[in-house]
Amino acid sequence: MSGILDARPRVGYYYVGKPLASLFALRLQQVTVDKIKSFPIVVRENASVYEAITTMFLEDVGTLFVVNERGILLGVVSRKDFLKVALGNSDIHKMPVGVVMTRMPNIITTTPEEEVYGAAKKIIEHQIDCLPVVRLVQNSEKKDEWEVCGRVTKTNLTRLLVELADER
Fold first, then answer.
1. How far is Cα 132 from Cα 76, in angstroms, rounded to an integer?
2. Does one domain contain both 132 and 81?
């Protein structure tokens, strides 16, 4: 059951030869995003940059997802985006988040069914802190849209690694 030993009739137990690292990788590939995702922190597109910054600090996150009234992903805004705006001497009390956010389709996403390994690779390849977890829905005009149902962060991934290492 551990993947290190196997058994055969009239032979008994024998060493399979799989290193522990490959067993760890196998276990990691069996975990889906749905198992580790956390609650998404969202703001509306018309919220001011000031309100979004306040939300970011109150929720202690580095990325906010911008959604419409139905929870459909419109964009993503991060600390870097806010820093650029604040350094530009803009009035952050009047400027809407929609002006500074990264818009769809330029957002890297994941789905609840995706393996955690794939989500982790996306975070590394695109050098981002967080992925929105989305599911495909159709609007009233039968157009595909992405509904936000969670988020995967570097902290979620680190927590999973610790939990898997603790299982041994």
1. 9
2. yes
Q: Report whether pLDDT(1) > 50.
A: no
Tell whether 83 and 3 lie within a shared domain: no
Domain that includes residue 4, residue range? 1-30
Task: Find, among 118, 120, 110, 121, the residue nearest to 156 by Cα.
Answer: 120
Give me the mean pLDDT over the 125-137 stretch: 94
Q: Which amino acid would we find at residue 142?
A: K
Strands (E), 16-110: 42-44, 63-67, 73-78, 102-103
E strand spans, 12-143: 12-15, 42-44, 63-67, 73-78, 102-103, 130-138
Q: What is the CATH number of the domain that holds 73?
A: 3.10.580.10
Residues 46 and 2 reside in one and the same domain: no
Whole-number CA gyration radius for the chain: 21
Give backbone dihedrals phi and psi of 61, rounded to 5 degrees, phi first. Answer: -130, 165
Report pTM: 0.80
Contact 38, 94 (CB under 8 A): no
Whether the Cβ atoms of residue 99 and residue 91 lie closer than 8 Å to each other: no
